[in-house]
Amino acid sequence: MKLHVALDHSGLIPCFAAITEGKTSDIEIGRTVNFPKGSIVAVDKGYTDYKWFNQLNLKGVYFVIRLRKNAVWKVKERRPVDKKSGITSDQTIHLTGAKPKRIGLPVLRRVGFKDKLTGQRYEFLTNNFDLDAATIAEIYKQRWQIELFFKWIKQNLKIKTFVGNSKNVVMTQIWIAMCTYLLLSYLKFSAKLGWSMQKILRVLQLNIFLRRDLIALLRGDPCLKNTRDSKQLSFL
């Protein structure tokens, strides 16, 4: 099974999720997502599809992706860059490969970037010509948040291993984890304490047999009466 997620950068909350068989390609699901006009979509090279890029462009949706090494292009315009910021190039290019030509892909923007810490060089492709080149590089860097999201739910919401092997069991466990993540996100927003999701989860786990207002519990308000439900099982 494969979980496909679109993570909204505002709050880092999943705004789209789909569970498919493991052999389903990323771009197959990516084509089905209806992004709002003006969105900026940061994706990895698994989503490289010139026809999809053209559709996003026509809908007024921006994309930032790493340029494939085998891509062929012709430089139309070069813009000055501040190399102190790590930007090595900022160009308007026209992809000259057979497929982009057949699709009628418009001119795009190529941004070169060198990581000062690792020395690794990156080439980004985007249809956004308004933002600063350094901002384009930073947008792609934020794509790492999706990797951190998957790491977090695997470690904290028990979907690294499954209670069964049937399709229904696996899908149920994943959807429960996603619902739990959204509830925790809402609780974090409502409490406004600046706590991490993991800290909130730990507090809830330690107080799972108490009937209390969750916001009051997180604030540390004193318990005014015995909140343990007499109907619940007691563990010795």
Structure description:
With 236 residues, the chain is an alpha+beta fold. It has two domains: 2-146, no CATH class; 157-219, no CATH class. Helices cover 35% and strands 22% of the residues. It contains eight helices and eight strands, in the order E-E-H-E-H-E-E-E-H-E-E-H-H-H-H-H. It has helices at 26-30, 50-58, 98-103, 133-141, 144-156, 167-191, 197-206, 214-219; strands at residues 2-8, 13-20, 40-42, 62-66, 73-78, 87-95, 108-114, 121-126. The strands form two sheets. It has a six-stranded mixed beta sheet with strand order 3-4-8-7-6-5, sandwiched between helices. It has a two-stranded antiparallel ribbon with strand order 1-2. It is elongated, with a radius of gyration of 23 Å. The mean pLDDT is 89.
Overview in brief:
By secondary structure, the protein is α+β, with helices and mostly antiparallel strands.
What does the radius of gyration come to? 23 Å
Would you tell me the structural class of the helices and strands? alpha+beta
Strand neighbour order, sheet with most strands? 3-4-8-7-6-5
Shape: elongated
**Roughly what is the average pLDDT, rounded to an integer?**
89
Order of helices and strands: EEHEHEEEHEEHHHHH
Number of separate domains:
2
Largest sheet: 6 strands, mixed
